[in-house]
Amino acid sequence: MCPQAAAGGRRAASRAPGAHSVCRLLTRRAHGFYARDAGVAHRKNLGLLRRIVCQGSTKFKNVWTTHSASPIAYERGRIYLDNYQCCISSIAQEPRILYQKPKCSKSEKIEDALLLECPLGEMLPSPSDYKSSLIVLTVQNWLLRLSADSGEILEKIYLAGSCCKFRYLSWDTPQEVMVVKSAQNKLPAAARQAGIQQSVLFYLAVFQVLPLSFIGMLEINKKIFGNSVTDVAVSNGILIVMYSMGLVRLYNFQAISEQFMEQPFDLGHEFNWNGQVGVVGKYPFGLPCNIKITDTPPLLFEASSLENAFQIGGYPWHYIITPNKKKHKGVFHICSLKDNALAKNGIQDMKCCSLEPDWIYFHPDMSGRIIHVGPNLIKVLKLKEVKNNTDQMEIAEDFTIVANRENSVNNAVTVTASGRVVKKRFNLLDDDPEQETFKIVDYEDELDLLSTVAVTQIGADGRAHLDFHCNEHGILLKSIPLLESWDVTYSHEVYFDKDLVLHIEQKPNRRFSCYVYQMVCDTAKDDECSSHEKKEKVFCKKGGRIFEYT
């Protein structure tokens, strides 16, 4: 072949159709992008759902309501009643009971629960591990893993005898490492008067989940951590110890477990421990306390804050505290975790005059932003470098959301019909019920929407609406009126989960109500979904429970 032909062949090959596209595709694959993978399809579907949710013709209809004499919990499309003995699917337009167990005795009462979901890309030992399950903690120190759809017991672990009472479940690392915490050990008054000393304040049991495996149990001892410890937690690999004078101390939990673990144990295996012979996680022995802290561990960080309020987040790492004096309540300091330097504009104070204080937290969307919520104002703040000084960060306003107070009743001077001028001797509070006030702010991560609940109550009749805002710019995209009356003196929870809105209300005398709203795409002009006019209610009985339909 002549050189020209060869060169021409090479040129022809370099211009082959789609060659550049193939190279780009291979490069995108190397970085984890592939047009046909499930993640891309899921993201596209969620983008479509977001547009449907926010379009003008979409309504949210109150499809059914139920009431209970015990607390109501919600987790991922499932509503739990009767201390988790009854589970109802919230997905269908009519309530569908997934399971209903007989009423349990007081000794079987569930103290706390966590939803456990299957990790992606991992081989698990049992087929049941690939389905959602519920980890529950009973009053008798049993840790149970239940099927989320049937309530069947999949695993059963006995934690400890009467030496401690385990009461709380939390995540160290979500869906990976779980922490079971005891109530604070307190001696009876008679024992204290007799001079008996109690040195162990809390017990913590730590587990890896799916498959469920025991990492270790440790005790928080006042001889090591001091007499004034009031609470303790493990989060993101950090042991957090809180004290009565507002002090918060952080320790490396992994370093503690490695340094002070006396012996590792596996669930279901026989053990001989301090003269006791038994099976790990079985009655009556339970779990051994195999992490014995014999000396004060190295301190990572400490800060003093009013009511132990302490948060870490942002990029680079910052923390939020309130100066440890009552007069500073409602004042927040945002400081660098690296050197404790206060950020420029790092003192945030809304100067609210209200019964309920404003609150602040790092945005859960992992953007490093900060959300500061007051009675009539939501500020989304961001960290950015100070101009001409890359070592210092400043707090800048990203966007704000303001309550609708056009019809404000807080006029200092009013004029009567006869022309007489009347001056008020007092001003309304910033969160006066007669003015629209923000009560709840949440983030829907799958649709990337910021949701707010604002309430106005005149007399006994309170009205609330749930608004969806663009998470990036704060633009109002959708407003949904909640049809039931909202009493600001009651406790309320509102969940927005893709195409579902759930309102759980706690009334006096332990009366709980659950209102379920579902997305309805209707181009008709009637506005029955958002009308506050009283409609006829239909009652239906399922599984011994009464449901209301509008």
From TrEMBL:
<dbReference type="Pfam" id="PF15802">
    <property type="entry name" value="DCAF17"/>
</dbReference>
<protein>
    <submittedName>
        <fullName>DCA17 factor</fullName>
    </submittedName>
</protein>
<dbReference type="InterPro" id="IPR031620">
    <property type="entry name" value="DCAF17"/>
</dbReference>
<dbReference type="GO" id="GO:0016567">
    <property type="term" value="P:protein ubiquitination"/>
</dbReference>
<dbReference type="GO" id="GO:0080008">
    <property type="term" value="C:Cul4-RING E3 ubiquitin ligase complex"/>
</dbReference>
